[in-house]
């Protein structure tokens, strides 16, 4: 395959006149607390803050990148495509905490992506000669830097980690097609043949624990989510709630298992980042549990509304009880006795009127007798990143098809 240079020259290389600059990237919680910050992110000048944040927060490898590298000679492979591994001797001369770090430059990411693609292309015999491989390497890095081309998320997460840094790990149950034999082979490492694919459609059988069954699907989904891919399944093969089981008893139904899968997906850091795994759930219209399936999101959103309203009511009413106790001019015993403290009696009546449980009212009275004058009751809101909404998304971030 001949590769014609369009944006680069042999002299200018991949980046030529592309100017790089540094920026700051951070993530804040709704309360303003910083949960991620990188003060020196190198990106091409002209990139938007959103693009800079995405690559820094999601796609930079955060750990395991050696501070010193050495090339691994490989017969028949051009020197510029030799892969790299940790230079253990050089690392020994560094403080232990400085030996391994994370990526800090978009240039590192472009190099490892395009380098791995060019390396695989050379090994597969795609290029006519070395100049074509080098042209491809330069052109692809240039297009990535100028945002003219971009792969899917699992490529950013996984591709090139083994080629560029020697990062690897034990097999995760993935398979690949050997380019030399054309046969499907089980990978014996995590990153030499990585999982760079986008979304998968998987089947599920109406079976609890055997291969291809319900619990096996959660394992397969976890494997995909871990490396940043998404997955979708039509669950219409599962029995409806109350249907007979072959061993006796009744089925838990479709919804019970869907909730297990969505909770698992919400717990997995997809691609190793704070990125919710993409999950599609399909149910046919003739399934016995279709109405429960359709109402699932509505009910979860109602739960969020109840959590938000209830938490704010608790905080307000319980602190009103504290206020009534604090306004009493006398002993603490009398202040916490509603038979003697009319304001307290009124505050307790108001709390009960909005269904504040008696256990919490009694807890406030006990705290007051111990000298406390307020209570911090956790309140929730409907912000997209809030805890109730994250639970709701974990249960309902699905595509519903008839």
Task: List the defining traits of the structure above.
single chain, two-stranded antiparallel sheet, 11 strands, 12% strand, disordered C terminus
Explain what you see.
This protein has 13 helices and 11 strands. The protein has a 3-stranded parallel sheet with strand order 9-10-11, with helices on one face. Strands 1-2 form a two-stranded antiparallel ribbon. Strands 3-6 form a two-stranded antiparallel ribbon. The protein is an alpha/beta fold and 402 residues long.
SSE layout:
Elements: E1 20-28, E2 34-44, H1 49-59, E3 65-66, E4 69-71, E5 84-86, H2 88-92, E6 100-101, H3 106-123, H4 130-145, H5 153-158, H6 161-165, E7 175-177, E8 184-186, E9 199-201, H7 214-226, E10 230-234, H8 254-267, E11 279-282, H9 290-326, H10 332-335, H11 342-353, H12 358-369, H13 387-396
Parallel strand pairs: 9-10, 10-11
Antiparallel strand pairs: 1-2, 3-6, 4-5, 7-8
Q: Determine the structural class based on helices, strands and strand pairing.
A: alpha/beta
Beta-strand content estimate: 5-15%
Which strand order do you get reading across the main beta sheet? 9-10-11
Quaternary organisation? single chain
Cα radius of gyration in angstroms = 29 Å
Q: Please trace the helix and strand order, writing H or E for each element.
A: EEHEEEHEHHHHEEEHEHEHHHHH
Mean pLDDT: 91
Q: Helical element count?
A: 13
Low-confidence segments, given as residue ranges, are: 392-402
Distance between the termini: 46 Å
């Amino acid at each position: 395959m001949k590769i014609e240079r369009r944006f680069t020259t042999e002299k200018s290389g991949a980046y030529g006149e592309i100017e790089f600059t540094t920026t700051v990237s951070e993530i804040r919680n709704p309360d303003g607390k910083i949960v991620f910050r990188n003060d020196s992110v190198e990106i091409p000048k002209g990139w938007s803050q959103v693009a800079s944040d995405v690559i820094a927060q999601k796609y930079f490898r955060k750990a395991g990148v050696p501070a010193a590298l050495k090339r691994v000679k490989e017969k028949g492979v051009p020197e510029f495509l030799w892969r790299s591994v940790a230079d253990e001797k050089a690392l020994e001369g560094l403080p232990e905490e400085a030996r391994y770090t994370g990526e800090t430059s978009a240039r590192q990411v472009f190099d490892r992506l395009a380098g791995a693609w060019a390396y695989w292309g050379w090994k597969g015999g795609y290029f006519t000669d070395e100049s074509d491989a080098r042209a491809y390497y330069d052109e692809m890095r240039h297009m990535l830097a100028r945002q003219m081309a971009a792969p899917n998320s699992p490529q950013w997460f996984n591709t090139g980690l083994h080629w560029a840094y020697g990062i690897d790990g034990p097999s995760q149950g993935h398979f690949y097609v050997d380019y030399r034999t054309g046969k499907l082979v089980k990978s014996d490492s995590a990153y030499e043949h990585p999982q760079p694919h986008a979304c998968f459609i998987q089947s599920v059988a109406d079976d609890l624990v055997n291969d291809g069954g319900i619990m096996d699907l959660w394992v397969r989904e976890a494997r995909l989510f871990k490396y940043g891919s998404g997955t979708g399944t039509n669950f219409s093969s599962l029995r409806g709630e109350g249907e007979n089981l072959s061993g006796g008893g009744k089925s838990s139904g479709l919804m019970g298992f869907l909730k297990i899968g969505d909770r698992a997906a919400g717990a997995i850091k997809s691609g190793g980042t704070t990125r919710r795994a993409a999950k599609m759930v399909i149910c046919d219209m003739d399934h016995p549990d279709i109405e429960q399936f359709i109402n699932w999101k509505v009910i979860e959103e109602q739960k969020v509304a109840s959590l938000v309203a209830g938490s704010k009511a608790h905080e307000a009413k319980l602190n009103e009880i504290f206020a009534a106790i604090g306004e009493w001019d006398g002993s603490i015993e009398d202040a916490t006795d509603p038979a003697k403290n009319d304001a307290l009696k009124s505050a307790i009546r108001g709390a009960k009127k909005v269904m504040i449980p008696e256990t919490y009212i009694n807890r406030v009275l006990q705290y007051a007798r111990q000298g406390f004058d307020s209570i911090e009751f956790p309140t929730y809101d409907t912000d997209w990143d809030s805890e109730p909404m994250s639970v709701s998304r974990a249960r309902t971030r699905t595509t519903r098809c008839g």
